[in-house]
Specification:
heterodimer; A: alpha+beta; six-stranded mixed sheet; B: three-stranded antiparallel sheet; 16 helices; about 70% helix
């Protein structure tokens, strides 16, 4: 038996030596690459020795700051989010349990004072001397009061949803609300797999069929390409035949003889679809690209937390422009067309600012610990979405939508609101994605807005437009 | 009294235990210095209790097993001390409990050493042990509670007991007795089929039942580790008894087949295998533990962060890796003691296994040889499976690291194993003169 006992010992030696080999692999060979992984909470821990800068709203509400504490036997700075779920997805989190997301991730170099400029170099000297390093404070363009209104109204709607308000002149993100939300102080771990995906920023990561709000893009393309004018006449009718299928107006309504302007204001599907066919997918998709579709919108938010709006196939992959699409259905916002609320806010902003695609901007300014401003971003325009004339015409038509069309519930006393509603079927009986996009004041727009409420029984006019009105009221202070 | 002091083996043991206690004191001091906020008497009390218990166990050996192997007890002392220090570093309250468990475990150690200083007494209890092992496992399956997804625990009188740890020892005793009895008929089979010897069914049946039972356990307990451990111990003992690789190969093949089948019905096992093959896509949810374990190990580097200086706790006061004090204690050791310390721990298991197998070869009866081999394999393979799990060499399982992990069942059961090894050693050494 002794020989066999020796064999067994040999096997044990091999097994245990394999353990040492594997430990060596992790501690020597793979150590560097593991330390570089973003999802490694140890990175966050190392940065806890830095007094991470605060994140403050434009109206002076502290959204994130650091307070001294003790962690595992060391002096550290712990992150606090005094407003809890107010702008949780936009601000994001910097957490030992979950790593980093949102602006906490994308603005990390400034918040930790580890930028590559002079301030960053100074900070690394501090670190070497063992002094406390203090990161820069970031002031956002976000208006906390309006954000609060948006969150309250979305919560009252009882459905998941999102509100985005941009300043059309510089892209400033004035509101970016997404419900359901979470408390980054306490609820992060539960939020990871909570129902309704509260961590998801629906403004940038939620893809929804834009429905009739997309008719603004179709109209811009048609007017720019000279396919129609506002006064072009269209015949009466409740349905048309396209692609072997019937395409009808909302509730099968026949608008009677009307012009193109009327068709947009009253959201006549048949007319916009007819225009779409005449335009063709190539020209329509070119306009869409001008509005920022088909690509992730570049702004100061982590790229992987932005999804591109565009046409998606059934497997959820984006269909490249130029693929075979039904332009009639595309023109009225169907045909597996999906858009984020941020994208639709950019459409509204382009109409509002005379036709330019403006880059969203979360940051108003970055301040060093001594109070000096280290960065104040300038407005960036990514290109032209349509001509100034077309934008002017659409502005008037969208004003009429709120005055006399489907968007009447978006009206705000003393503030000329312009807009477009959308009610997209979700494929589930009686449930729609309700939209409103618009801007105010119509004559000299300061706010461009997109509101989306998921899976609701109501229409864009019933559900989304009143939320827009309340948010715009808070913003304008009226 | 003079005769006792002149025992060369026991003197060596005492010197080594003194060294282990020195390590313990230094370790506690290091944690205390690194974590000034937790300054308290509790580590001193734990260390004192630890020292007293080990010295008492040593004295008991002088009295009852004077000729037994002098290295087993000091090896357990270093392992238990490292565990106690890291547990203290995680949570001083847990360390107080663990100190108590170690004292209790050494109490059981002395009791076993006294009761079975003639190891042949145990051989006559082989069937009782076998029945008891099966009963313990059945009880676990029927009234067990799930912890971390695996049903390995029963709650009784406010305590959580892990009967599998004790069932393991009883099973080894049963197998040692059974295999010694049937060794010849199993090794020299009755019939030959295609040139391969097949034992008579009535001799092999208990082994086949055992194989089936291990697979049932796998599914019922939802834990790959426990059933694999029991199965491998049995196969190793069958191999020592019969020398027939056919049994080992057939056994492993059956286990692999059964394991594949179990994958279909035990989701926990599937999750663990997925997390083993590629943890990174699920590192925030189903593979969180293994991913954090790897980060924790890698962070230690070659020399480690130092006792009490690693990053183990999170901002909520818990451990970053869940179950750090039990399943993942090796990751904590690798973090704070580095590759140097972690390798030392593995080498201590290797030393312990070496002493165990050496005791087996020196024993002159079949039962003792089989028992010592089985116990040595039990400790070494358990260390292999759990450490293999946390370093991603194997799928993760819910086993404890012998002598090191927090937990009363594990600690006391392993001290019983150490005592049994020393009982066998005593008899072998005395008869050799």
């Amino acid at each position: 038996m002794n020989a066999r006992i020796s064999h067994l010992f040999g096997a044990v030696v091999v097994a245990l030596v394999a353990l040492i080999a594997m430990t060596t692999y992790w501690q020597v060979w793979a150590r560097g690459s593991l330390e570089a992984r973003q999802s490694n909470v140890r990175l966050v821990y190392r940065d806890l020795e830095i007094e991470r800068g605060a994140i403050i709203s434009a109206d002076g509400i502290v959204l994130a700051d650091s307070e001294p504490g003790r962690l595992d036997g060391r002096d550290v700075f712990l992150r606090r989010y005094p407003e809890q779920g107010l702008a949780a997805q936009l601000v994001g989190y910097s957490s030992l349990l979950a790593g980093r997301a949102g602006l906490e991730r994308s603005l990390d170099p400034e918040l930790t004072g580890s930028t590559s400029d002079l301030a960053g170099v100074r900070n690394s000297f501090d670190r070497m001397r063992g002094d406390t390093v203090r990161g820069d404070d970031v002031v956002l363009r976000l208006v906390a009061a309006a954000q609060q209104t948006a969150m309250d109204r979305l919560r009252e709607a009882g459905r998941a949803g999102s509100v985005v308000v941009l300043d059309p002149s510089n892209g400033g993100v004035l509101v970016m609300a997404s419900t359901p939300t979470f408390d980054p102080n306490e609820g992060l771990v539960e939020a990871l797999d909570a129902p309704g995906s509260p961590l998801l920023n629906r403004a940038t990561q939620g893809l929804y069929p834009p429905g009739s709000t997309f008719k603004v893009v179709t109209a811009a393309s048609a007017l720019d390409n000279g396919v129609v004018e506002v006064s072009t006449e269209f015949p009466a009718g409740d349905c048309i035949e396209t692609g072997g299928q019937e395409l009808c107006n909302f509730n099968g309504k026949d608008p009677g003889e009307h012009d193109f302007g009327y068709a947009l204001v009253h959201s006549v599907n048949t007319t916009l679809a007819t225009v779409g066919i005449e335009l063709g997918d190539e020209r329509l998709e070119a306009t869409m690209a001008g509005f920022g579709f088909f690509k992730r919108i570049p702004w100061d938010y982590p790229a992987d937390q932005n999804l591109a709006s565009g046409i998606y196939n059934r497997r959820g992959n984006q269909v490249r422009p130029g693929a075979n699409v039904d332009e009639a259905r595309l023109a009225i916002g169907q045909e597996r067309l999906l858009a984020t609320p941020l994208q639709m806010a950019l459409v509204a902003a382009a109409v509002a600012n005379g036709g330019q695609l403006v880059q969203p901007q979360a940051v108003q300014e970055v301040r060093a610990p001594d109070g000096s401003v280290t960065r104040r971003p300038q407005a960036v325009f990514l290109g032209r979405a349509m001509t100034t004339e077309t934008a002017g015409e659409l502005r008037l038509l969208m004003r009429q939508v709120v005055d006399e069309g489907t968007g009447a519930t978006a009206a705000v006393e003393g503030l000329d609101v312009a807009g477009k509603t959308g009610t997209a079927e979700t494929g589930e009986e009686g449930l729609n994605d309700a939209w409103f996009i618009g801007f105010a004041p119509a004559s000299a727009p300061r706010y461009a807005i997109a509101v989306l409420v998921e899976r609701t029984a109501g229409t864009g006019g019933d559900v989304a437009a009143p939320i827009a009105a309340d948010v715009l009221r808070t913003l304008s202070g009226s | 009294m003079n005769a006792l002091l002149r025992l060369p083996a026991r003197n060596r043991e005492l010197a080594l235990i003194a060294l282990a206690l020195l390590i313990t004191t230094a370790g506690f001091a290091a944690v205390q210095i690194a974590r000034a906020e937790a300054l308290s008497w509790s580590p001193l009390i734990a260390a004192a209790l630890f020292a007293a218990a080990y010295l008492a166990a040593h004295v008991a050996l002088r009295l009852y097993l004077p000729d037994a192997d002098p290295y087993v007890l000091p090896i357990t002392a270093v392992l238990a001390a490292i565990g106690l220090i890291e547990i203290h570093r995680i949570d001083p309250d847990l360390a107080r409990d663990q100190g108590l468990w170690i004292a209790l475990g050494l109490g059981l150690f002395v009791a076993v050493a006294v009761a079975f200083r003639d190891i042949r007494r145990l051989e006559s209890l082989r069937y009782t042990c076998g029945a008891l092992a099966v009963a313990l496992l059945l009880v676990t399956i029927v009234v067990g509670t799930e912890v971390n997804g695996a049903r390995l625990w029963i709650r009784a009188a406010g305590l959580q007991i892990q009967p599998g740890e004790f069932a393991k020892i009883l099973l080894v005793v049963f197998l040692a007795g059974y295999l010694r009895e049937r060794r010849e008929v199993l090794a020299a089979p009755a019939r030959r089929v295609l040139g391969v010897g097949i034992p008579a069914l009535r001799h092999a049946l208990p082994l086949l039942i055992l194989a089936g039972a291990a697979l049932v356990l796998l599914v019922a307990m939802n834990d790959l580790g426990s059933s694999l451990l029991l199965f491998v111990i049995a196969l190793a003992m069958v191999y020592v008894a019969t020398g027939r690789l056919l049994y080992v190969g057939t056994g492993l093949g059956l286990f692999a087949l059964g394991g594949l089948a179990a994958l279909q019905i035990a989701p926990q096992v599937q999750t663990r295998i997925d997390g083993w093959l590629d943890p990174w896509p699920d590192e925030q949810d189903s593979a969180y533990q293994i991913a954090q374990s790897i980060y924790t190990i890698a962070d230690g580097g070659v020399t480690g962060a130092g006792f009490g200086r690693g990053l183990i706790l999170n901002d909520a006061g818990g451990t970053i890796i869940p179950f750090a004090q039990t399943d993942f204690i090796y990751s904590v050791i690798a973090n704070e003691m580095g590759l140097v310390g972690a390798s030392a721990v593995i080498l201590l298991y290797l030393l312990l296994a070496w002493r165990g197998f050496r005791i087996a070869t020196q024993a002159d009866d079949g039962f003792s040889k089989l028992l010592a081999s089985g116990l040595a394999v039990a400790v070494a393979f358990q260390a292999f499976v759990i450490v293999g799990g946390v370093v991603r060499l194997l799928p993760l399982t819910g086993l404890t690291l012998p002598f090191v992990s927090y937990g009363g069942s594990s600690v006391t059961a392993n001290f019983a194993i150490a005592a049994l090894l020393l009982c066998i050693s005593q008899r072998a050494n005395r008869e050799r003169g």
